[in-house]
Amino acid sequence: MKAAATTAARDGLTRRHALQAGGLAIAFTWLGGAGKAFAAVDARHQPEDDAAAAADGNPPFAPNAFVRVDADGGVRLVMPMVEMGQAIYTGSAMLVAEELGIGMDQLKVEHSPPNEALYGMPLLGGQITGGSTSTRGTYDVLREAGAVARTLLVSAAAAQWQVDPAGCSVARGVVTHAPSGRQLGYGALAAAAARLPMPEKVALKAPKDYEIIGRPLQRVDSPDKVRGATQFGLDVRVPGMKIAAVKACPTLGGLLQSVDDKAARAIPGVVDVIRLPNAVAVVGEHFWAARQGLDALVIDWTPGQNAGLDTPTLRAALAHALANDKSIVAREVGQRPSGGTLVEATYQSPMLAHATMEPLNTTVHVTPTQCEIWCGTQVPARCVAEAAKITGLAPEKIVLHNQYLGGGFGRRLETDSVEQAVALAKQVPYPLKVVWTREEDIRHDIVRPMYHDDISALVDGDGRILWFGDRISGGTVLGRWAPGAMKDGLDSDTVESAAEPPYELPNLKVEWVRHDMPPGLLVGWWRGVGPTHNLFVVESFIDELAHRAGKDPVAYRRAMLQKNPRTLAVLDLAAAKIGWGQGTLPPRVGRGVALGDPFGSRVCAIVEAEVTPQGEVRLRRAVVAIDCGIAINAGSLEAQIQGGLLFGLSAALYSEITIKDGQIQQSNFHDYRTLRIDEAPTVEVYAVHNLEAPGGLGEVGTAIAAPALSNAIFAASGVRLRELPVRRALLAQGKDVFKQKVATADPSDPAEPSLAGSRA
C-alpha cells in the first residue's frame, strides 16, 4: 500500500476514531480552539470539588464531582450531561447505583452547574451533551465514582468496628459486617468517610455480577413527568418576571430599521417594547399580551445581502464547488484500478430544522452585580461565557440554572437564543422570560447543512466493488463551532460513515470540498450529524450496485462483511427477524435494507413500505437490529432506537428547509411535517447482547432511517430516489412522465429512474 493509504487518520484521531476509542484515557483535550486545555470528568477528588461541594451546601460526603451523601443518608447524583429525552439520567444513575450499592429508588438526580473542569466530556472537549457520547464517555468514570464512594464508606465502617473491610458488604445504602451482625447506614458514615484519603485502587463489579445494569428499568424522570412536576425551561417562574415575544429580521442576516410601536403599547398587558440590532421584542404581563403586541408592531427591516438568496442558488453553488474547488482527502486506501465498469450517481441532501417539541426559551435577570439565567441547554458553560461577554460581568457572576430540555436534537448546542435573551434582559430591571414562537423557532433555526455528493464505483463483471469513491461538498459546522478541532482543514463530521464504511473495500477515496453558506445562513448539528447524510448516500448507492449486478441486496452486503463479524451479525439478525427472502409481498410493497457502524454501534434497519399508485408512501413495518455493546438499560435501548428511527423517517418523507428571497419558507408543522401516529409503522428492535464497550444510541436510529426507506421505495416502485425528502410526483403512476419508467424499471438496468440522475 502506498503512502496515500496512511492518510486514513491523517496525523491524529479522526472524530470517528476518537469516539469509538472511548477517549477515557485522554486526561486533557483542546476545547474547540479556545486555546486552553480542560480537565475532563474524573472519578477522583479534583481541585475544584471543594468549591463545588460548598456551593452545594457542604454535604458531609462529596468524594468526587458526582456523588453526594447527605447526613440523612440521602444519595444524590450530580449529572455531567443534560436530559433531553434520551434517558441519560436513568442510564447514568444505574451506573453509579450499581457500584455504590444502593437501589435506584434511593438515588436523586440533579442537574450539574456549569463547570468545564469537573464536567467536561473528553469525547467532545467540554461540558457538552451531544454526538451520542454520554454513555461512551462516562461508562467507566461513573462506575468508578460509585466504587470510590462505596470503598470509602465501607472503610469508614470497618475502621469504626476495627474489622477488615473485606469482611463487609453493602446493600441499599447500608454497610453490614455479617460475622458480628453490625450495620451502619451511609448517612451515619458520611462524615467519617469524608476524612479518609482517596483509595489508590477500587474494585469494579464484573458484568456477571451486575444487578442493575442491563435491566429494563423505568426512567427516573417518568413519575414527575406523568404528574406534571418536571420543570422545563418554559415552566420557569421567577418573582416579578415579565414575558417577551420576539421577532427577528425574516431575511437571514438582515437588520431592524425602524419600529412603530404605538398600537402595541395600547394593548392591555403590554409592558414595553425592546429593540436589538436585528430583532424587536414586546414585553407583556403574560405571553398572550406580548404576542398580540408583537403582531401589532409596524416594522421596517433592512434585508441585507441575502435579499435575493434562494435554495436553487445554494444548490448550484454546491455543485459548482464540487466540480471546481480543491478537495481535502479524508481517507484514501490503495489506488483506483484502470479496469472495471464505472458507475456514478449524484445525491443531494436538504437543509433541515430541529423543530424541538419545546420551542426555544430563556429566562434572564440582569442586575449590576449578577446575571441569573434559567434555560435548557446542551452547553451550559458556553452559555455562561457568552453571557459574560454581553453583560460585561465576570464569568463567576453568571449563574445558570439548567432545566430539563424538551428536545435538543443539536439545536440547544447553540447559544443564540440565550445571547438574545441576555441582551434583551440587560435593558430592563425585572426578570425577563423570552419565548420564541414555533414560527420564530423554525424560521431562525441554525439548520442542518445541505450536501451534494458525487459517488462512484468501479465494479467487475460480477458486480464486485474494485474501487469506491465519494466526493462531498457542504458547509462546515465544526469550522464555525469549534475551528480548533479541525485537522488540516478537515471537518471530520462531513465524512463520518463515508470515510470508513463497514465493508471490505480494496480501494477507496473519500474527499470533502468545503463550501460555506452565505453570511447569515448558519448551519449546525442535527440529530445524527454526519452519518445521517453519509449513510443515506453510501447505503443507497450500495443498494444500486447490488441491483445493477442482479444480486440480492442482503447477500451483496453479506459478501463484503466477512471481516466485520459484528456488523454481519446485525445484518443477519434483522434479515431473519423480518423474514427476508421468504414469501411474496403484495404488489407495490418492497423492503429496503441499510446498515452501518455509526457512533460506535452497529445497526441494520429493514423498512417495509408500500407506494400507492398516487405516489403516497405507507410505512408498514420496520425491523432494527442493534449491537451497541453492553446495554445499560434495555428499555431505553428500545425506546431510543424506535424514536430515532421515526424521527429519521419523518425527515426523509417530509422535511426540508427551503429559502426564497433570503427567508426560510417553512414555519410550523403544517409545512414542516412530521409522522403522525396513524402513519408510524410497527418498529421492532432486536439487540445483539455482548459485553463490548458501550456504543451510542440516541442518534443511531435516525442515521440509518433514510437509506432503509429509500431502498424500500425502490423495491416497491422501481424508482431510485437520490434526493430527499421523498417527492411523491416521482412515484405516482398517474403522471405520464413517469409511467414508462415505473412500468419498465429493471433492477439490472443501470439507467434506472432517479431524481438526481445516474450515469453508468
Q: What key phrases describe this protein's structure?
A:
7-stranded mixed β-sheet, single chain, globular, 760 residues, 21 helices, alpha+beta
Please tell me about this protein's structure:
With 760 residues, the chain is of the alpha+beta class. It contains 21 helices and 29 strands. Strands 11-12-9-19-16-17-18 form a seven-stranded mixed sheet. β26 and β27 form a beta hairpin. α15 packs parallel to α19 and α18 packs across α19. It is globular, with a radius of gyration of 27 Å. The N terminus and C terminus are likely disordered.
Tell me the span between the first and last alpha carbons: 28 Å
Say how many strands there are: 29
Strand proportion: 15-25%
The shape, in one word, is globular
Biggest pleated-sheet summary: 7 strands, mixed
Based on CA atoms alone, the radius of gyration comes out at 27 Å
What do the pLDDT scores average to?
Answer: 92
Unreliable spans: 1-37, 737-760
Question: Strand order across the biggest sheet?
Answer: 11-12-9-19-16-17-18
Percentage of residues in helical conformation: 25-40%
SS field, number of helical segments: 21
Structural class, from helix and strand content? alpha+beta
